[in-house]
Please model this.
Amino acid sequence: GGIITQTPKFLIGQEGQKLTLKCQQNFNHDTMYWYRQDSGKGLRLIYYSITENDLQKGDLSEGYDASREKKSSFSLTVTSAQKNEMAVFLCASSMDWGGAYEQYFGPGTRLTVL
Amino acid sequence: GDSVTQKQGQVTLSEDDFLFINCTYSTTTYPTLLWYVQYPGQGPQLLLKVTTANNKGISRGFEATYDKGTTSFHLQKASVQESDSAVYFCALVNTGGADRLTFGKGTQLIIQP
Model:
């Protein structure tokens, strides 16, 4: 088995601030993902990475940057936090790219912007 | 584009009640369909997956049947327990298209003891 660790668990920021969320996995999976979860809106894909140093934009990439320097880690940066923004950011990984492969999710980082 | 619709935002039941969560989808091909479950404080985890080859998925007492005619993939359980309280997401993978997950908005299941 393996585990996905997301840090921090809670993140409070100010409007306009640049904020970074981190994700580590020990599954030795090739593909990693960042999703945003808003209440009542399901999960939306922000960025994904098929392998180390690869980056692909998802449906919600505007306002975010991502970085995959190592196979085991994937970071997400909110480039300018929006006032009153509240969401949970979920990191996931899978053995390979493609719908046939199960995605394993971390517990999330809950973001609040004051 | 692909879409998944879950009409029920919240379902409230008592223990031993029958569960039915509605899910319909729209896509250009015959996708792989999935149900994920998210317990409080955790990330979603795969509950069951159904492809065009097998039509029905069963896991932990839950079942879902792939109905191409009505493009539906409803989740059912004969007798719910308090431990089933969670958010349930229906999702699809368009294997002939972008090959990524498209999620529904989720249905929160509340089980009253």
Observations:
- The two ends of chain A are 38 Å apart (CA to CA).
- The CA atoms of residues 8 and 109 of chain A lie 6 Å apart.
- Chain A touches chain B through 22 residues (CB under 8 Å).
